[in-house]
Protein: Cupin domain-containing protein
Amino acid sequence: MSEVVHLPDREGDGRGVLFEGAPKTVRLALDEGDRVPPHQHPDKEIVCHVLEGAIEMTLGDETVDLSAGDAARFSGDQDISPRAREDSVALLVLAEG
Structure:
């Protein structure tokens, strides 16, 4: 069985899980200057695809700048803290590491 979600229909959700079960798929919408506090997703590998805007992603001791069209893969075993450099929307997929 297939599941389809139209992302523009999810506007205003902030952080919204798109599908039940694994892999966890999340739409993240942040206003310019908003930051998600440092947190971890132990035993997960994460892919972040920035759909709109620009995000400064703090990953442990490293900071990666991502813009619309960029995708990054990283371990959830470290502190993660995205901050929007402008209004931004990203799609995150969290899979077993």
About this structure: The chain has a mean pLDDT of 89. The domain at 23-96 is CATH 2.60.120.10 (Jelly Rolls). The longest strand covers residues 44-52.
